[in-house]
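Shapes recur. Our protein:

. . .
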Amino acid sequence: MEKNNYIAELENIPETYYGFIFHYYRAEVYRETNWRNRLDTTTNWSIVVTGAILTFAFTNEITPPSIILVNYFIVWFFLYIESRRFRYYWLLRERTRAIEKQLLTNIFLGKSKKINKRTWKQIIADSFRSQKVSMSKLESIAWRFRRNYFFLLPLIFISWIARVSSFPYPVHTAWEFFENAGIWFFPGLFVFTILIMSIFIIGFISFYIPGKRIHADTP
């Protein structure tokens, strides 16, 4: 029965299309690799900028803690860019994985092993036909935070606390800490609350959303 399913699956593809499928698979792997390299670029930018700003903040006595907050928002901007790139990388990876799991696996095993309810041809055709990437922006942010930014953003937050504790004068009480943490007309307690809430919210989202969605095969 499995052999008949396998033969029927191949018979649905004209023999003249075999070369096209081969070249198409190579092209998708090439595009996937390029988008994967672009993901590493934004991560490297975040690390370099963080290292440079934190070094400047702690080696210059007159540097205010607000410079670290600038670093915090810059890293968030890089995370947003990386999440956008990750959505397109994931789309290309889904296409190559569909071919590998549904077609190449059967060829190597010499039998038909149904993994998805839809065939690999339907999966790829639907991805071309649809004008939207099925992975949401929030989900892509959650994936990238889990993989690359889980330690970077909390590190910046801890560095900000350390800088606030010593500038413009060393603190000994919570009131003095919040007084140092104030920026313009924003009180220190407000700034601290916004920062720590953003850390906890993105941490919760990054572990909750990927576990609840269907894209569990994403690296």
Remarks:
- Residues 2-212 form one domain.
- Residues 51 and 71 are 10 Å apart (CA to CA).
- Residues 66-109 form the longest helix (44 residues).
